[in-house]
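Possible regression after last week's pipeline update?

I re-ran a chain I had predicted before the update to compare outputs. Posting the input and the new output here so someone can diff against the archived version. Not blocking, just want to make sure nothing changed silently.
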Amino acid sequence: MRVFIAAYDLKLAKQAKLDLLKAGHTVTSTWHDLTFRRTSESTSEACRAKADNNVVEVLRSECVLVFVPRDLCPGGIYVEVGAAIGIGLPVFSVGYRPGGLRGNFIMYHSLVSQYATIEGAVQAMEEK
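New output (post-update):
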């Protein structure tokens, strides 16, 4: 499967890429291979280019693998999740499902499946 990885944790994303490649999948996302710069350290043009590229890479994918940390729920990863849902791609979510007043209801969409581990998500991908 062609997989886009969405995560806040760069180290986790790089390990996920290795795990996916080992399982025979293709990783379409490239953000985790580039020099990391925080949004606050980047120009508006650089941020726009990165955001546009991420969505293009989602469009080239067959699914999105997203890692959701328990203590962080800003918008970054949800852009790619929304793009995937918008074109009917499955989303494999590993970790915390945000809910309540600080949560993000998009993670309850019917195309989003929840897993406790990356192994569970990868197994589910292989069953698709």
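Follow-up from reviewer: compared with the archived run. The CA atoms of residues 61 and 105 lie 23 Å apart. Marking as no regression found.
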